[in-house]
Design goal:
Layout (H helix, E strand, L loop, with lengths): L1 H6 L7 H9 L4 H11 L2 E2 H7 L5 H13 L3 E6 L5 E6 L1 H20 L2
Antiparallel strand pairs: 1-3, 2-3
Length: 110
């Protein structure tokens, strides 16, 4: 399978490249994993879980994940505002791959 990717004329056209474009960056995988673990998460809870991430970075990553149709943002019309995030079906299907990365990391840690 790797050989198929190498032999393609344009790496950007591969499935690997597309998948990587969805999860690349320092925080997206962490956000996705957090949503997998806790299912429905309010914005303030995400901020508490991801302490080292700035509000701007978190907001930007959430918008990208929503645009890429991996998460659902649900806003409730109330005061104070309430916003929740959760994985959609497409995002949940990606969790199988992230779980395999975790398993590999545990089995191959040096």
């Amino acid at each position: 399978m790797i050989r198929d990717y190498i032999e393609k004329a344009n790496f950007e056209e591969t499935g690997f490249s597309y998948t990587w474009s969805l999860i690349s960056g320092k925080h997206k995988i962490v956000i996705l994993y957090c949503l997998m673990e806790f299912e429905v998460v309010r914005l303030n809870e995400l901020k508490r879980y991801l302490k080292t991430m700035s509000d701007k970075t978190l907001s930007s990553n959430l918008k990208e994940l929503e645009k890429d149709q991996l998460i659902i943002r649900k806003e409730y019309p109330q005061i104070p505002p309430k916003v929740e995030y959760m994985l959609n079906e497409r995002g949940r299907s990606l969790m199988k791959i992230l779980d395999q990365l975790c398993i590999w990391g545990e089995e191959n840690r040096i």
